[in-house]
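re: the backbone from monday

yeah here it is again, tokenized this time
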């Protein structure tokens, strides 16, 4: 199933990841995939068999030529034809199973990753959600998971398979004839270098294209949105000029990518022809001296493609793999965000009833760790300073004060949405910091100032606390 050309988007700095981080990601990934060990082993096994079937076909051709054509045996040709057919059908069937097996593993993993991230996020402290914009968190869940999805749904099988084919081909070739193998692999380094060059240059070029398309679009949008002003002041000419400039820049960027492609593809094609010439030339030389059979030379011709395609495809897949690793790294970062109002180990349940006591509490917003983009959020001004208040069981207290006095903040501290910087809040003599989360939410409820309606009926919304 080595199909077609893999189009992966260009790699920007955001989706790059260094070697050390990549190592950590892989390690953690393998730990997360441990429960799927059996399925993975099965998939790898299928992949190996499928690759073996693929690598066997040229051997059948070799047999047909040597035993059938050269040895003049009709029976050998018939056997070879049947074997070839069997191998073709087997590879097709195995290919199906491989895609099926790998996709199942990948999709299972993504499903549990999405669940884990959401479970983690929804339990995090409010301070976290003040640092992180909801939009960015949603982006994490969509674009980062998409990057992984891309790898899982198309890249992964091809990546492993191409690597297997490349290595397998080299092994089979050297078993057939190490002399001819040595002659053949001289064409490999140029293809590797050319592919590395192409990946690097085309990546830069495609980033540039993306940039310039963006600029061009914003010129277009601005001109059209502001068309009343533009026409009122007779500025059409100026805008046309501006658009021509950005349009030209987009053209240049596209042409630059074409230039890179026109150097790479014909070069690889040329090396392919050189490789063919080498195999046929050296092969006939060896065959002439009875070092090799003709069939072996033909098998080498067929194997040549197995050396070229994987290099090209692997270099293309590099971007997909890199983006996926970077995305996984960011998602792991989210999963590692600690809760700043955690439940203590050995936390106890709050008593059923008791006195709610706020003693000497001081509080300021902010001051947590940097957000996921690395932007730090310094501690803001002090909102509450040495506040004490006691509410007895059954007592009703109203706090009255000007806007911004800190009433809502005090309520949030009483419910332990935040921990105070100084002082303590306790219920029935137990500090909220020592309480279990469950008992805390059961004893102390907050009705926020800003209502929020969840999807569903009015009834569902009223019963949100005890569904
Ligand atoms: N999430 C937040 N991040 C940073 N500062 C905040 C946050 N919420 C409130 N503040 C600040 O803390 C102070 C107290 O706000 P708070 O909401 O507790 O006031 P309030 O007494 O409830 O006011 P209102 O009567 O308008 O509801 C204000 O200066 C406000 O700007
Ligand atoms: Mg308020």
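seq for it, each position gets an aa:
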């Amino acid at each position: 199933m080595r199909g077609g050309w893999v189009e992966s988007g260009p790699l920007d700095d955001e989706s790059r990841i260094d070697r050390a981080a990549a190592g950590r990601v892989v390690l953690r990934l393998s730990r997360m995939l441990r429960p799927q060990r059996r399925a993975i082993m099965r998939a790898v096994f299928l992949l190996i068999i499928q690759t073996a079937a693929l690598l066997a076909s040229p051997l059948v051709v070799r047999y047909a030529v040597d035993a059938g054509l050269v040895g003049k045996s009709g029976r050998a040709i018939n056997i070879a034809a049947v074997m070839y057919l069997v191998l073709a059908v087997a590879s097709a069937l195995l290919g199906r199973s491989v895609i099926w097996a790998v996709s199942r593993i990948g999709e299972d993993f993504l499903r549990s990753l999405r669940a884990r991230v959401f479970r983690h996020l929804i339990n995090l402290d409010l301070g976290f959600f003040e640092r992180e914009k909801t939009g960015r968190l949603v982006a994490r869940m969509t674009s980062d998971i998409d990057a992984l999805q891309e790898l899982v749904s198309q890249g992964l099988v091809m990546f492993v398979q191409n690597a297997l084919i490349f290595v397998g081909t080299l092994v089979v070739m050297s078993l057939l004839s190490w002399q001819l193998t040595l002659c053949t692999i001289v064409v490999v380094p140029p293809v590797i270098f050319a592919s590395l060059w192409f990946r690097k240059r085309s990546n830069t070029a495609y980033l540039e294209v993306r940039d310039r398309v963006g600029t061009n679009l914003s010129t277009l949008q601005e001109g059209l949105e502001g068309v009343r002003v533009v026409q009122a002041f007779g500025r059409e000419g100026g805008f046309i000029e501006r658009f021509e400039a950005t349009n030209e820049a987009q053209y240049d960027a596209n042409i630059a990518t074409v230039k890179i492609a026109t150097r790479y593809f014909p070069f690889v094609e040329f090396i392919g022809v050189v490789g063919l010439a080498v195999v046929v030339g050296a092969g006939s030389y060896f065959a002439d001296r009875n070092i090799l059979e003709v069939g072996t030379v033909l098998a080498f011709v067929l194997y040549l493609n197995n050396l070229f395609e994987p290099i090209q495809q692997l270099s293309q897949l590099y971007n997909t793999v890199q983006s996926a690793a970077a995305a996984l790294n960011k998602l792991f970062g989210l999963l590692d965000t600690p809760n700043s109002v955690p439940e203590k180990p050995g936390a106890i349940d709050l008593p059923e009833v008791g006195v709610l006591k706020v003693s000497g509490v001081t509080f300021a917003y902010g001051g947590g760790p940097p957000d996921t983009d690395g932007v730090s959020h310094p501690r803001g001004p002090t909102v509450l300073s040495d506040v004490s208040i006691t509410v007895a069981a059954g007592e009703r207290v109203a706090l009255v004060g000007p806007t911004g006095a800190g009433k809502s903040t005090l309520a949030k501290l009483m419910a332990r949405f935040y921990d105070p910087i100084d002082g303590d809040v306790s219920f029935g003599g137990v500090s909220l910091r020592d309480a279990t989360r469950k008992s805390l939410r059961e004893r102390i409820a907050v009705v926020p100032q800003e209502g929020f309606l969840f999807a569903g009926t009015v009834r569902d919304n009223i019963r949100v606390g005890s569904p």
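The CA atoms of residues 26 and 325 lie 8 Å apart. Confidence is low (pLDDT under 50) at residues 1-6.
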